[in-house]
Each structure stands twice: as C-alpha cells, then as structure tokens.
Amino acid sequence: MSTSSPSPEELAAEIDRLRLQNQRLRIELADARAREDVPRRGLVNAATRLPGRALNLARTVRSALTARSAKVRPSSALPPPYRLRQLHPTRPVRPRVLHVIANFHLGGSSRLVVDLIEGLGHAYDQLVVADDLPASPAYEGVALEHHPARTLDAARERFRAHRPDFVHVHYLAHHRDKYGAHAWAWYRPWFEAAEQLGVRVIENINIPTEPYVSDSVACYVHVSDYVRHRFGRQDGRHVTIYPGSDLDLFALPPGVEVADDCLGMVYRLARDKLDERAMEPFIEAIRLRPGTRALIVGGGISLESYRRRVAEAGMEDAFEFTGYVEYEALPALYRRMSVFVAPVHRESFGQVTPFAMGMQLPVVGYDVGAIPEIVGDHTLIAPAGDGVRLGAVAAALLDDRARRIAIGAANRARAEQLFSVRAMVAAYEELYGELTMAHQAAVAEGT
C-alpha cells in the first residue's frame, strides 16, 4: 500500500506547527530557568542593601568599566547623529503608536522607524522604546525611552503609561547566538502584555528569522518576499512592505556621469551580514584589473581584520576604508563608485542596495537571502560565498561601460517603482489606518 507525499500546503502547516511548538518550549524553558534563578536574584537584592562603602566601590568599578568602554569605542569614530525633520504640519488629534525595538543603533531597522516618524509624525504621535542604545545617539529628534527591563510587569506599566492605540514591534530576535536570544527574552513580555491588555500589534520581521507568534499580532510585515516566503505562516495576515529609500537624496545629479574603475560597498562591518571573506570579491576583481580601486564605506568590529586581509594581499594602495560616515555624506560616496558589491552571507533586505540603485549603479552580490529579489537580474548574482566568481562578475562590468550604464538606468527605474520611501510610507499609512479604526471601534464597544 503506497502513501502519497504530503502537499506543499501540508508541509508548510507542519513547519508552522513545529515552530510554534518550539516557541512554546522556549517559553517553558525560560520560565523554568527564571524559577531556578530566584535564589541568585535574592543575593543580588541583598547586595543592594550593603553599606555605603560597598555601594561606592560598585560605583567606582562601574565608572572604570564605562571609561574602558569609551576607550574601546570612542564616540569620535561614529558619525554625528541624524536630525529628524517633520515633513507635514501636525494634526490636532493624533493616534498614539509605540515602536518597540531591541536596539536603536545606526542601521536599517532604526532607519525604518525614523522614516515612519518623519513621514507619518504629523498624523501619529510616535514613541520608541529600546533595550540597547549607543553611547552616542545615532538619531536626534526621536521621542525615545531606554527600557532594559525584561519583565511582564514593566511592559504592562509602559502600556498603561503611554496608552498606545497600537504597537509596532520591529522584531530582531533569533536563537543563533546569545545576543539574539537576549533580544528574544526582551521582546517576549511586550507580546504577552499586549495580549493581556488587548493591544493590537504590527510585527515587522526585519531579519531572516521566524516571527514571534502571538494572538495580539494583527499583521506580520516582512521586509522582503524572501523573508515572507521563508518564515511567514499560513495562518494570520502576512504582507511584504519593502523598507523605503530617499530617492530624492540618492540620485545622480544632472550632468554628473557614473564613475569608472571603482568598486564599492556600504555596510556596518559586523558579522551579522559580513563574514571574514567579505574582501575577497574586491581582491579578485583588482587582481583581474590592476588599477581598479575599492571604496569600503562603514565601520564596525570587522574593520581592522578587513584592513589586515587587504594588507596580506598587498593591495593597501587600491583600497580606501572610510570608517563610519554620516547619512547625508553617503550620496557623494556612492557617486565615486562604478559598481556596488553586496558580499553578504545573510540578508533580509539591505537598504544600502536600493541606495546604489537610486544612484544608477549596477549591483552585484551573492545568491543569498533577498539579494536576487532586490537586484532582479540573475546574471549579476554569484553562488553564495564564491568570492572569485563575484569578483569576476564585478570586473566584467567594469570592462563594459555601456552595459553598466544600461543596468544603472534600469536599476533607478526599479528602485522608484519598488523601493521608494514614499511607497513605503503610503503602505504603512494604510496599515496604521486599519489598526486605528479597529482600536476606535473597540473603544466604542467598550463604552
């Protein structure tokens, strides 16, 4: 007796079931560990009641650690903060939105929040709560609260204090390392508090990870079709809204021609997207085309290791590492590039890629995550991790200026159609309007 193979729908349903079971088991495990941790928390509470001499010692140690941290990551290495602009006059009555995000450092997820505040701040009163903040602010003009607590009581208290019409969670948690697991533990109480208080949630899945499943979530928003197809569930409402790019800022000025003989990339130089092999495509392209230059824009933990790899290849004179730069300086740096290279090992969207497309640059990258979806041209994609192949693709484009110009023009049109900040804000405005009306209807029924 033969049995038929399960259908794709049946397989997807089974994956959903297993992921939900996995989430429930993680919750049980976290609760069990919390119960075991009660004696240790008691010791911590007792320590806070030590005599003033011990408290002063603790303050001295904390000051020393803070000073050491400042030496390790000097604020001078970071760009000045971006200052938010309100684009429209404020309306007299604005529904309240609470943005919940694990960190508010320089990066794509924080920028998405900033774009929403700028684009919809006139219509919605928006507050941001975050667990991790940089030593030097990345953005100014944001109503921002530092909220490191990871308890249900603390989340409920913030909901009652701010009384949001709905919550917009920007989900950055995973279980691949301790940082992602810490973020998961931080996000969990917000979902549980929303469930208990009847607050509706928009959950943005901003990285390649499964969403946190909660009855409070009215809509799961994925930043690419790749993320939605890979991690979206069959039940619930799942949509794709691409993060928007300011294509007025990221545009080639009239009369300015695309540069020649320069490969570039713009990323935070950290291991979440870039691994130790990120310089290999540049090194290979320059090996094939001596005289080509590489412009590496961004700073981060991997910067020095990338410098060392370039030195090992004997190509220091061909590379320029800018370190961190301010947002407004990016268009001028893109204008120096001929081809944008995306050597990432993991990618949910990557806003720096549409920036390059807006500047009429070809984009080449690995067959990873959303890169093929954004680029839309398989001839510009290399197998994941194959730096030699990606370098050859980039070098071939540098050899063919007419093809580069044609691809760049098509990229600009594609970015305007799919990746503009106006299109993104319009999509969220519609979603925000739906949740606002649902909240108002719930309040009316309650009264």
Would you give an account of this structure?
The protein is of the alpha/beta class and 447 residues long. It folds into two domains: 92-242 and 422-446, Glycogen Phosphorylase B (Rossmann fold, 3-Layer(aba) Sandwich), CATH 3.40.50.2000; 262-419, Glycogen Phosphorylase B (Rossmann fold). It has 15 helices and 15 strands. α4 packs across α15 (421-446), α5 packs across α6 (178-197) and α11 (352-358) crosses α14 (401-418). The longest helix is centred in the first third of the chain and has 29 residues, at 8-36. It is globular and about 70 Å long. Residues 46-76 have low confidence and may be disordered.
Helix and strand composition category: alpha/beta
**Termini, distance in Å?**
61 Å
The helix/strand series, from N terminus to C terminus, equals HHHEEHEEEHEHEEHEEHEHEHEHEHEHHH
Quaternary status of these chains?
single chain
Strand order of the largest sheet: 5-3-2-6-7-8-9
Average pLDDT confidence is: 90
Whole-number radius of gyration?
24 Å
The total of helices stands at 15
Shape: globular
Number of domains: 2
Biggest sheet character: 7 strands, parallel
Helix-strand blueprint:
Elements: H1 8-36, H2 38-47, H3 52-72, E1 82-83, E2 96-103, H4 108-120, E3 125-132, E4 139-140, E5 144-146, H5 152-162, E6 166-171, H6 178-197, E7 201-205, E8 217-222, H7 225-231, E9 238-240, E10 262-266, H8 280-288, E11 293-297, H9 303-312, E12 319-323, H10 330-334, E13 339-342, H11 352-358, E14 363-366, H12 371-375, E15 381-382, H13 387-398, H14 401-418, H15 421-446
Parallel strand pairs: 1-4, 2-3, 2-6, 3-5, 6-7, 7-8, 8-9, 10-11, 10-13, 11-12, 13-14, 14-15
Helix pairs in contact: 4-15, 5-6, 8-13, 11-14
